[in-house]
Every structure is written in structure tokens, then in C-alpha cells.
Design the sequence.
């Protein structure tokens, strides 16, 4: 499992270089309002079992809300470098037992 940080959540469609953002990441809000949490700064870390965000490291991407009607671009975020956890204990040292906290 790895985590990646989201830095500089903004409404701007431009990267620091001035290039316009042309890619987005789908965020499924069906069960929980993740996009609102990202935009408010409450959710700054993404945990995934796969390395699907690797192509976007260091880039600004669109935040695309899915799972609630038509897909919608709601903002932009910069993708940070991943931290790889080799064991559950390493993960829990940073985040505690998230499954227990969500029940």
C-alpha cells in the first residue's frame, strides 16, 4: 500500500510552468464526499493498493467528481511523491487503524 500527498489544491487550471492542465483523476464520491474533502484541505493523502497515480507525480491534474450523476471537473491538485508501506505496522505508525476509526 502506498500513500501520495496532494499539495496545493487550487482552482487554477495552470501549472507553475504556465502550461494548461490536460489530465484529470476520477474521484468517486458515491459513498463519501472525497472531492469536497480534498478541496477543503481535509483530505491531503491518498492511499491506493496500485501505483495508478505514478504518471502524475509532480504534476497538476484536474479533480473529477464521479459517482454522483455526470462526471464533473471540480478543481485541481498537485500530485506528490508516494510513500511505500511494506507492512501494516508501518502504515499504522503514520495513520493508526483507519478501519477501526471508520466504524
Sequence:
Amino acid at each position: 500500500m502506498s500513500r501520495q500527498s496532494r499539495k496545493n489544491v487550487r482552482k487554477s487550471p495552470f501549472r507553475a510552468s504556465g502550461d494548461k492542465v490536460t489530465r484529470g483523476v476520477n474521484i468517486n464520491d458515491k459513498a463519501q464526499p472525497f472531492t469536497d474533502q480534498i478541496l477543503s484541505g481535509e483530505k491531503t493523502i491518498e492511499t491506493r493498493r496500485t501505483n495508478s497515480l505514478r504518471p502524475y507525480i509532480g504534476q497538476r491534474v484536474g479533480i473529477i467528481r464521479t459517482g454522483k450523476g455526470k462526471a464533473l471537473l471540480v478543481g485541481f491538485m498537485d500530485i506528490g511523491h508516494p510513500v511505500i508501506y511494506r507492512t501494516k505496522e508501518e502504515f499504522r505508525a503514520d495513520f493508526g487503524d483507519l478501519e477501526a476509526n471508520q466504524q
Remarks:
- The chain has one domain: 2-25+32-65+78-96.
- The chain has a mean pLDDT of 80.
- The first strand starts at residue 2 and ends at 10.
